[in-house]
Design goal:
It is built from 4 helices and no strands. Helix 1 runs antiparallel to helix 2 and helix 2 crosses helix 3. The two termini are 17 Å apart.
Length: 88
């Protein structure tokens, strides 16, 4: 199982990820849009504040939940390795 350690700086991760998003176009092949990616960062920050380790499985489930809310009829899904790439 993969866990984010308590030493992981979620604020640094969030800032780095938002900088990355500002450099990418909205139609770059990513499944989640900017707002959904920001929601994932907020989710990670809340878990950190509650001292709950963020598991990759939970991150994937949260992303898939957001995708389902946006398109309930035929939602796309993130791949199994998406959470690890998201956290890079």
């Amino acid at each position: 199982m993969h866990f984010m350690t308590a030493n992981t700086s979620l604020q640094a991760l969030q800032l780095r990820h938002l900088e990355f998003l500002s450099e990418r176009s909205k139609d770059d092949g990513y499944v989640l849009n900017t707002e959904q990616r920001e929601a994932i960062c907020i989710y990670l920050t809340r878990l950190d504040k509650l001292s709950i380790p963020a598991r990759l499985r939970h991150l994937r489930e949260a992303a898939n939940f957001l995708l389902q809310q946006a398109n309930p009829v035929d939602p796309p899904r993130v791949e199994q390795h998406w959470p690890a790439r998201f956290l890079q």
